[in-house]
Amino acid sequence: MAQSCENCGIDQHVGELDIRSAAYCFRCGCLLDAVEPMDLNLGLSWMIAEFILLFPANLLPLMQATLGPESRENYISNGVTALWQGHWPLLAVMFAAFAIVFPFLRAGMMIVVLGAVRLNKRPKWLGYLYRRAQDIELWAMSDVLVLAGFVVFMRTEVQLQGRIQWGGWCLIMAAALQILSPWCLSSHRIWRAIRPDEHRAQPGPTISCEACALVLPQRYLGHRCPRCWKRLRERKLNSMTRTGALVAAGYVLYFPAYYYAMSYTLQPGGIKLHSIIDGVKELIAAGFWELAVIIIITSILIPLLKLVGLTWMLFRVRHPTAKHLVFRTRLYHVIHRMGRWSNVDPFRASAKITPCFLTASRVYSKVSMD
Ligand SMILES: [Zn+2]
Ligand SMILES: [Zn+2]
């Protein structure tokens, strides 16, 4: 059957695969198709488990911080309220969307898609729903939140007695299911279960859908893909100009983002400002070099890799060469998947506000008592 490589876009023919076998693109080596022993039933139960776990993760406390007789429980919603009360309404809405709404939406949409396929029902909108679930996947950040929470927890442990609560364990399990789901659910298989690929070779020039990789005759150009409803086009409109402008804006904002403070805490001497670099220095000074490495990789190196990688790709589109072509297509894929992990520090900043306030109130009460 005709298959399109999601990395380099070339169309090629792939025969029927045996179980535990895989087909790779002859040009760039990207995985085209694989037949795993796991089936859609397992994928469906996986998604239902993730959806159910998200309820206690959001309703029960994630962590308990104790200092002497005082203790405070932290919920996911604390991050939203702290940002809202800190007069950052836009960040509060984004935090609520990435940490709460999108994980629920993604798992719910996947249950509908896999459940419909399992019941042999294929309504017209099923491909559209699966495409939207894939769009949301990058923005459903339970896993990023768990990593940010881990950094906060390790820091809290030293100042206060921290204990992970039931909500925290459920969030960790939901995030683990989200991270492992690509191994269990092959998107190629799901697309084919929604609507099979064309088995006959297409006569004349062809075009492939950038969302579901369905290969179609060129006359479909400008129309909607019959499988996922995405409009078929050869190139994104003004993609070079838009990417160039966004990369330039990224460079302008990159250095101030590290130099200026990102959050503040109330301390007896007044307000203490925290920049990302200060946070890394504090972690190293306190002996948490492994946490410092996590922040350096996620907050400093990944955004830099993204900017430098995109600059190189833009330059090479203007001055094309076949050199490093395969490496560049793979790098593009890595950049696309890794970008979301640079949100660890904003999540950490919003999550740590509550324990910091707890420490501050405790210190204040001591000062006033003295
Ligand atoms: Zn390829
Ligand atoms: Zn499509």
Helix and strand run: EEEEHEEHHHHEHHEEHEEHHHHH
Strand order of the largest sheet: 6-5-7
Question: What is the subunit organization of this protein?
Answer: single chain
Report the principal-axis shape: globular
Radius of gyration: 24 Å
Q: Low-confidence stretches at least 5 residues in length (pLDDT < 50)?
A: 353-370
Distinct small molecules: zinc ion
Classify the secondary structure makeup into a structural class.
Answer: mainly alpha
Largest sheet: 3 strands, antiparallel
Amino-to-carboxy terminus distance: 79 Å
- Overall strand count: 11
Return the domain count: 1
Helix content: 55-70%
> Mean pLDDT, as a whole number?
82
Continuous helix count: 13
How much β-strand is present in the residues?
Answer: 5-15%
Can you put this structure into words, describing what you see?
- This protein is mainly α.
- The chain contains 13 helices and eleven strands.
- The strands form five sheets. The protein has a three-stranded antiparallel beta sheet with strand order 6-5-7.
- Helix 1 packs antiparallel against helix 6, helix 2 runs antiparallel to helix 3 and helix 5 (142-159) crosses helix 12.
- The longest helix is centred in the N-terminal third of the chain and has 30 residues, at 89-118.
- Bound molecules: zinc ion (ZN) (2 copies).
